[in-house]
C-alpha cells in the first residue's frame, strides 16, 4: 500500500497541498528522512511471505513493530526442510567480534561440519516422523528438531519500521544469513519507493553519527584551518542541497 507520492501527500497535508514537481517532492522526502520526520513513511505498508531457518526467524521476530502470522508446528507436521550453509559460508569465529563470524575456515573442517549437520538433521527428522506416527503430539515431537529447520510467516510492516529493520539487519554486524534477506528486501523497496529508498541510503543507511565528544574534536581540527570554502565546494560537488549544506556548516561550527 502506498508509494513515494503517499509519503509526500501525508507530509503536505498541513498545507492542503499534494505532490509538486518530482524534484521538489524528492527534496521534501530527503528532508523528512534527514530530520527523522517519520510518520509520513508509515503511510506505506508491505506484506511479505518469508521462509527462513528458525535461528534467523528468532532474530527477525525481535522486531516488534510488524504484524506476524507464522505456520503452526502444533497444527501441521514440520517438513524435513533445513538450511545447510554452502561450504564457503561456513565461517570461522571472528577474532574481533564475539557475536560474529570471520572469513576463513579450513575446507576439510567446513565439509565435515556440513556432513554432520545433514546427518544430525536427517536423524532428528526420522525420529520426529516416527514419534508422530506412533501418536506423540506434534507439539512435543518437534522438540528434537534442529534450529536450522525452515519456518514460514506472513509479515506486514509499514515503510518506516521496515527501513529501521533494514538499517539493523543489512549492517555489517548482522549475521550473514539475515543480511541476505535484508539485501533482497532492499531491492524490493528500491523498486517500490525509489525516492524514499535513495533518501534512506543517503541519510540513514550509509550515514554516520558522531558522539558529542567526537564532534568537539572534529570542530577543533576544522577551526584550526580555513576549511569553510573547501567544505562548501565539496558539499556542492557531492550534491548536498543548500539547506543541508547550511545544517552541516552549522553542526561543524563553520558558519561564522
Ligand atoms: C547485530 C545485532 C545483534 C543483536 N544481539 C542481540 C542479543 O545478543 N540479544 C538480544 O536479546 N537481542 C539482540 N539483538 C536484538 C536487538 O536488541 C533488538 O531487539 C532488535 O534489533 C529489534 O530492534 P528494535 O527494538 O529497535 O525494533 P522494533 O521492535 O521493531 O522496534 C522499533 C522501535 O520501536 C520502539 N519500541 C518498540 N517496542 C518498544 C517497547 N516495548 N518499548 C519502547 N520502545 C519500543 C523502539 O524505539 C524501537 O527501536 C541484536 C540485534 C542486532 C541488529
Can you write the helix and strand succession as a string? HHEHEHHEHHHHHH
Judged by helices, strands and strand pairing, the structural class is: mainly alpha
Give the names of the bound compounds: flavin-adenine dinucleotide
Major beta sheet summary: 3 strands, antiparallel
Helix content: 40-55%
Radius of gyration, in Å, reads 24 Å
Task: Provide the β-strand percentage band.
Answer: 5-15%
- Identify the overall geometry: flat
User: Which residues form runs of ≥5 with pLDDT under 50?
Assistant: none
Overall average residue pLDDT? 91
The number of helical elements comes to 11
Break the fold down into its secondary structure elements and pairings:
Layout: H1 4-11, H2 22-34, E1 45-53, H3 54-60, E2 67-70, H4 107-133, H5 138-141, E3 150-158, H6 159-169, H7 176-192, H8 194-205, H9 212-223, H10 228-237, H11 242-251
Helix pairs in contact: 1-2, 2-8, 7-8
The protein binds flavin-adenine dinucleotide.
In short:
The chain has 256 residues and is mainly α. It has helices spanning 4-11, 22-34, 54-60, 107-133, 138-141, 159-169, 176-192, 194-205, 212-223, 228-237, 242-251, and strands at 45-53, 67-70, 150-158.
How would you explain this protein's 3D organization?
The chain is mainly α and 256 residues long. It contains 11 helices and 3 strands; from the N terminus they run ααβαβααβαααααα. It has a 3-stranded antiparallel beta sheet. The longest helix has 27 residues, at 107-133. It is flat, with a radius of gyration of 24 Å. The model has no long low-confidence stretch (mean pLDDT 91). Flavin-adenine dinucleotide is lined by residues 62-65, 99, 161, 164, 168, 173-174.
Amino acid at each position: 500500500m502506498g508509494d513515494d507520492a503517499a509519503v509526500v501527500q501525508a507530509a503536505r497535508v498541513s498545507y492542503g497541498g499534494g505532490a509538486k514537481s518530482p524534484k521538489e517532492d524528492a527534496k521534501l522526502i530527503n528532508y523528512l528522512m534527514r530530520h527523522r520526520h517519520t510518520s509520513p513513511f508509515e503511510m506505506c505498508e508491505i506484506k511479505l511471505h518469508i521462509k527462513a531457518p528458525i535461528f534467523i526467524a528468532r532474530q527477525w521476530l525481535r522486531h516488534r513493530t510488524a504484524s506476524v502470522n507464522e505456520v503452526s508446528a502444533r497444527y501441521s507436521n514440520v517438513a524435513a526442510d533445513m538450511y545447510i550453509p554452502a561450504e564457503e559460508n561456513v565461517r570461522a569465529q571472528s577474532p574481533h567480534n564475539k557475536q560474529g563470524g570471520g572469513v576463513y575456515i579450513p575446507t576439510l573442517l567446513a565439509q565435515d561440519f556440513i556432513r554432520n549437520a545433514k546427518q544430525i538433521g536427517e536423524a532428528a527428522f526420522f525420529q520426529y516422523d516416527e514419534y508422530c506416527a506412533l501418536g506423540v503430539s506434534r507439539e512435543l515431537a518437534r522438540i528434537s528438531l534442529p534450529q536450522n529447520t525452515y519456518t514460514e510467516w506472513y509479515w506486514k510492516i509499514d515503510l518506516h519500521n521496515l527501513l529501521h529493520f533494514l538499517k539493523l539487519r543489512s549492517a555489517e554486524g548482522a549475521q550473514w544469513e539475515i543480511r541476505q534477506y535484508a539485501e533482497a528486501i532492499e531491492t524490493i523497496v528500491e523498486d517500490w519507493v525509489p525516492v524514499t529508498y535513495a533518501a534512506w541510503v543517503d541519510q540513514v543507511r550509509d550515514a554516520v553519527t558522531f558522539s558529542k565528544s567526537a564532534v568537539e574534536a572534529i570542530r577543533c581540527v576544522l577551526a584550526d584551518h580555513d576549511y569553510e570554502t573547501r567544505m562548501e565546494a565539496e558539499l556542492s560537488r557531492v550534491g548536498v542541497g543548500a539547506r543541508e549544506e547550511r545544517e552541516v556548516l552549522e553542526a561543524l561550527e563553520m558558519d561564522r
